[in-house]
Amino acid sequence: MSLAIVASAVAVAEPRAAADLGQLLLAMPAACRSMLQGRGIVLEHRLPAHPLPVFVQQEEIEQLLMHVARIACRALKNGGTLQVLALADGARAAVHFMDAGPDASAPGLAHLFERGARESDAGVRHCQRIASAHNGRIYAAPSALGALGITFRLPLCTPPSAAGDLR
Known about the structure:
alpha+beta, 5-stranded mixed beta sheet, 6 helices
């Protein structure tokens, strides 16, 4: 690969910046919200009152959220609720995505994610790549509330130049 191609790829990549993960979750891309609303899915947030400072490439986190929303649309075919619980867990931020269908059926979000991981689904692989690139993980697991869903973990940070600029 030529140096010119590498240089242009680096110039296009959005730099990482300090951000409040809670605010990123509240501002889920408009396309996510309209896709969920179009399927009759309510988005419910449970976020801490304090910031969850992370060092991320915002565009990539938005892509990850879009993939999770797509999986939720497949899991909640008859509408329901996509719950988003975020909290600090030691030195990491933990975000739990849980689904609750209107018919109180078993959560399908985690099962679809696990199946996608086994079958090398492009959306699931993309989520895993984004999480890994940010020194994090995304996987199917019980939440802090006990419900099975998708868990996304990222390291918390307090960069010296942005420590006081989050809220």
